[in-house]
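[Meeting: bench + compute handoff]

Bench side (C.D.) handed over the final construct sequence. Compute side (W.E.) agreed to return the predicted structure before the next meeting so the bench team could plan truncations. Sequence as handed over:
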Amino acid sequence: MKITKPLIDHSLRATWQAVSKMYSEVARQYGITMALGLTLLNIDPKNGTASTALGPIMGMEPTSLSRLLNSLEELHLIERKPNPQDGRGVIVHITADGLTKRDFIKEHVYTFNQAVSDKISQRDLLGYYNTIDAINSTSSEQLFDFQQISNEIL
């Protein structure tokens, strides 16, 4: 009998769903969602972060990021201030309540990462990162190829 492994993309989705479910439960304990928690983690806690820089950091479209920032602002976890170097821009700063939630979430992220690292060897961890790099570059190449084909068809 032949044992088959699931497809790579299935393993990625299933793994991310498990991690996402765990992070969502952690975030829920602090009265926010996983997406809001991850956004807080990507904002510089001392100097704030330009709103235009957050999208690329998080791999998000501006509209989705805007909704997240609006939610964080409604919860009084961030505030937006004009960028002193560019009056058209906005710097997102974390409030005291936002910093408290950020610190708790950051601790959970580090704890999870350490727990995973404790279960696998350094060699396997390096193999994991090499694998992820290969998946990312392959998906980017495939996307580029599909976009080129689409442009030729249109």
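W.E. noted at the follow-up: The chain has a mean pLDDT of 91. C.D. will use this when planning the next construct.
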